[in-house]
Amino acid sequence: MTVVNGSKTLPPSPPVVDPGAPPFKTSVAGAGIVEASTENISIGTLVAGVVSEIYVSVGDMVKACDPLFKIDDRDLKAQLAVRQTALRVAKANAKVEKAQLNDLENQLERAEILSRKQVISVDDLDRRRYAVQTAEAKVAHARAEIASAQAQVKETETNLDRIIVRAPCDGKVLQSKIHCGEFAPAGITQTPLMLFGNTSPLNVRVDVDENDAWRVQSAAPAVAFLRGNREIKTPLKFVRFEPYVVPKKSLTGDSTERVDTRVLQVVYRIEGNELPVFAGQQMDIFIETPDPIAPPHTSLQATQEEAGETRP
Question: What phi and psi, each to the nearest 5 degrees, are found at residue 106?
């Protein structure tokens, strides 16, 4: 009795909310993830350091190149002051070398006049010429030092601009995982420092099973149902196919589900922004497909039909 009672099949529990019903006669269903039209952009920093200022909050709308947050810049500001001082010193040295060159050129002009009158020797005239050439080389060296100092100042100014992380485009701050005083690592992180994207309009990325991918057409109508309320639905506008078929990541947990399935990702645009839909939310998508057609005839059958032959 215990074994018999314990081996009874339990009825499946009913869903909390009934899923949306396909509005088409034949369709392909897929799970969709709402995302920004620019895709969700993971904001990072090129320079690692402690965050000193945050200019935006979650949900803020920002323009392209607006600052998002800044890394501590005290060391770079001190370096900039040192290099600016070195630039001023190089410019002062260049003025000294230029003045000495002017003086030697003036002496050379007078020596050439005296040499034509045979007042000074040729050796004295040659020494003055060599002195002018040396002064010209010193002036060129001083100008090169100015260019080098200017490049160093420009490098520091560029580094100061790099530590201010700016918005790559117009959009909204979807998520922020960084705070003032925290260390922001450079490079790829498991959790992005900020999540950013343009939410006007929103897109839906639909995973279509590879076995049904051949049935999906770009011009086919598609409808999205909001999970949790099947009364909220919206038509979708086709944007593009992702050419590369990827492994399926969103699993339902069904015992009959294949975990090695690959999916074709199709991106649709949500028409209108009045729906209570947020980036990262899941939706049920139905894409209309043409009616099933009979399998095509083989070339042998086509040849027989043309010849009027019949087969039992």
Answer: -65, -40
In 3D, which of 11, 31, 44 has the Cα closest to residue 224?
A: 31
**Nearest Cα residue to 224 out of 77, 32, 46:** 32
Instruction: Return the structure tokens found at 195.
Output: 């999540």
Residue 197 near residue 174 (C-beta atoms within 8 A): yes
Q: Give all domains of the chain, ordered by start, each with its CATH number.
A: 13-37+199-288 (2.40.30.170), 42-72+164-193 (2.40.50.100), 74-161 (1.10.287.470)
Q: Which residue, chain included where needed, has tokens 């620019």?
A: 38
Angle, CA of 54, 65 and 67, to the nearest 5°? 10
Q: Which of 228, 200, 238 is nearest to 284 (CA)?
A: 228
CA distances 193 to 33, 66, 175, 188, 189, Å, are 21, 16, 8, 10, 8
Indicate the pairing of strand 61-62 with strand 171-176.
antiparallel
Q: With beta carbons less than 8 A apart as the criterion, state whether 35 and 282 touch.
A: no
Q: Taking the complete model, does pTM exceed 0.85, yes or no?
A: no
The DSSP letter of residue 187 is S
Digit-coded pLDDT (tens) for 137-182: 999 999 999 999 999 999 999 999 999 999 999 999 999 999 999 9
